[in-house]
């Protein structure tokens, strides 16, 4: 009578290291040999068959979990994850609800492109020429110097937006399973970039003053090789670094000068808060990113990156195999708007509008019995006494689409009791109705959660 092969033989999992075992399972999944919901062998069974330590299999399963390929289900074991859509920013297609989840800037507040388009001209740009338009480089040098100071060497790079810069900066520094310190809760694009890159996210809590000192200390103790943070208008919380918090984080990072520190100042010209950097003049590996998408429009796929010369050189090498440069036409359009008095005034007006609408919404929610403090940015981070998913479902029944906080969380359940609500295009009447509906949604969500 033939022996029944065990699970790992059937799955043909191989490898002697955690990375090799994880790659073997990944191949089975990619080839369709392991369908969603399929069980992986128990740790002891697979370790015995492969002749490796059980901790090696545990590490392999952890890599797969972090990549979103498998999930641990307690007594049900480790199973291939269902293919669910990755949460993304942007409009919800096909919805009849009032969309307060998209996180988009107000198109009416984006400066008109026509004047800039009518002024750009010049000779064609050919292969091998400088990748940064010289006039934009001169303007950006002054812009970035005002932020980082004159006491350090820096080089500029132009990328196709902030997310493009972050992906390339991490790729030129890290290898698979390297640890990255991320704010928790975290901006969706940054979280997705780290997970899809195969890196290991280490959660650092964010409070009203930004990334916490104790959280960053724990992340550095865990061996992170990169730190990604938002100095102003942190998405989703709206927190900005205080001068005191930034100084404390700088002191902490002084003992780790070769850890890559990336500051994503995505709100820059729109921010109502001062810029405080965590990067000291002696730090060896750093980058400051400023995208134009929030104030010149998401389709302006351009970000200025200031970094130490070595990081800039590595970033340039990452650009060469693909999009060697960002279109000079796009660079010239951006420069025209960044230096046009009318466009700059429009950005300033947009900044004031976003801040005023956040304050108005916070006041309306608080008056309705849902206390909220207005932060910086395009949205409000609304704390709840009930699970956010249940509250968002109740708001959907009342015609509102909002973003539950658990989509931004790395670990724990803290953000699962928050909503991110983009309020800047709501009138006072809309805000009053939303506040009333939010107050009504909370007890309804509590009843639903209790019944469940």
Annotate the secondary structure layout.
Blueprint: H1 7-11, H2 18-30, H3 43-50, H4 54-66, E1 70-72, E2 78-80, E3 98-99, H5 114-119, H6 134-148, E4 155-159, H7 162-171, E5 179-184, H8 188-196, E6 200-207, E7 210-211, H9 213-221, E8 226-229, H10 243-253, E9 260-264, E10 286-291, H11 293-296, E11 303-307, H12 309-319, H13 328-339, H14 341-367, E12 379-383, H15 388-397, E13 400-401, E14 403-404, E15 418-422, H16 428-451
Parallel strand pairs: 3-13, 5-6, 5-8, 8-9, 9-10
Antiparallel strand pairs: 1-2, 4-11, 6-7, 10-11, 12-15, 14-15
Helix pairs in contact: 2-4, 3-4, 7-8, 7-12, 14-16, 15-16
Attribute tags:
15 strands; pyridoxal phosphate binding; alpha/beta; Arc Repressor Mutant, subunit A; Aspartate Aminotransferase, domain 2; 3 domains; DNA-binding transcription factor activity; Aspartate Aminotransferase, domain 1; 3-stranded antiparallel sheet; 8-stranded mixed sheet; WH_DNA-bd_sf; transcription regulation; PyrdxlP-dep_Trfase
Quick structural gist:
With 452 residues, the protein is an alpha/beta fold. Helix content is 41%, strand content 14%. It contains 16 helices and 15 strands.
Structure description:
In the C-terminal section; belongs to the class-I pyridoxal-phosphate-dependent aminotransferase family. With 452 residues, the protein is α/β, with parallel strands linked by helices. The chain has 3 domains: 73 residues, Arc Repressor Mutant, subunit A (Orthogonal Bundle), CATH 1.10.10.10; 120 residues, Alpha-Beta Complex (Aspartate Aminotransferase, domain 1); 214 residues, Aspartate Aminotransferase, domain 2 (3-Layer(aba) Sandwich). Helix content is 41%, strand content 14%. Helix 7 crosses helix 12 and helix 14 crosses helix 16. 43% of the residues are buried.
């Amino acid at each position: 009578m033939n022996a029944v092969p065990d699970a790992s033989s059937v799955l043909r999992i191989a490898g002697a290291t955690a990375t090799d075992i994880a790659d073997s399972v990944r191949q089975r999944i990619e080839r369709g040999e392991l369908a969603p919901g399929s069980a992986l062998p128990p740790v002891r069974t697979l370790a015995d068959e492969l002749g490796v330590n059980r901790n090696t299999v545990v590490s392999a399963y952890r890599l797969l979990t972090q990549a979103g390929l498998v999930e641990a289900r307690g007594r049900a074991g480790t199973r291939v994850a269902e293919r669910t859509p990755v949460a993304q920013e942007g409009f919800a297609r096909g919805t009849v609800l009032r969309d307060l989840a998209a996180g988009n800037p107000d198109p009416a507040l984006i400066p008109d492109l026509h004047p800039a388009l009518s002024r750009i001209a010049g000779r064609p740009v050919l292969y091998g020429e400088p990748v940064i338009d010289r006039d934009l480089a001169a303007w950006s040098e002054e812009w970035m110097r005002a932020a980082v100071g004159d006491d350090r060497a820096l080089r500029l790079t132009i990328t196709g937006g902030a997310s493009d810069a972050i992906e390339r900066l991490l790729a030129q520094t890290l290898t698979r399973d390297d640890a990255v310190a991320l704010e928790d809760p975290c901006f969706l694009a940054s979280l997705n970039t780290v997970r899809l890159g195969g890196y290991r996210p280490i959660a650092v809590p964010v409070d009203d003053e930004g990334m916490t000192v104790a959280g960053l200390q724990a992340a550095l103790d865990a061996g992170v090789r990169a730190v990604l943070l938002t100095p102003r208008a942190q998405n989703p919380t709206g927190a900005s670094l205080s001068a005191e918090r930034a100084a404390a984080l700088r002191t902490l990072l002084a003992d780790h000068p070769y850890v890559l520190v990336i500051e994503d100042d995505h709100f820059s010209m729109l921010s109502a808060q001062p810029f405080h950097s965590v990067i000291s003049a002696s730090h060896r590996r750093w980058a400051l990113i400023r995208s134009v998408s929030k104030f010149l429009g998401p389709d302006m796929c351009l970000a200025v990156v200031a970094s130490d010369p070595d990081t800039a050189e590595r970033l340039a090498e990452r650009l060469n195999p693909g999009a060697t440069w960002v279109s000079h036409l796009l660079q010239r359009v951006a420069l025209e708007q960044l230096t046009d008095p009318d466009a700059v005034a429009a950005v300033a007006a947009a900044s004031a509008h976003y801040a005023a609408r956040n304050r108005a919404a916070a006041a309306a929610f608080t008056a309705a019995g849902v206390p909220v403090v207005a932060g910086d940015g395009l949205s409000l981070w609304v704390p709840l006494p009930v699970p956010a998913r249940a509250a968002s479902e109740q708001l959907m029944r009342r015609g509102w689409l909002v973003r539950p906080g658990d989509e931004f969380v790395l670990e724990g359940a803290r953000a699962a009791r928050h909503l991110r609500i983009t309020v800047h295009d709501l009138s006072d009447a809309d805000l009053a109705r939303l506040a009333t509906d939010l107050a009504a949604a909370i007890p309804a969500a509590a009843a639903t959660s209790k019944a469940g």
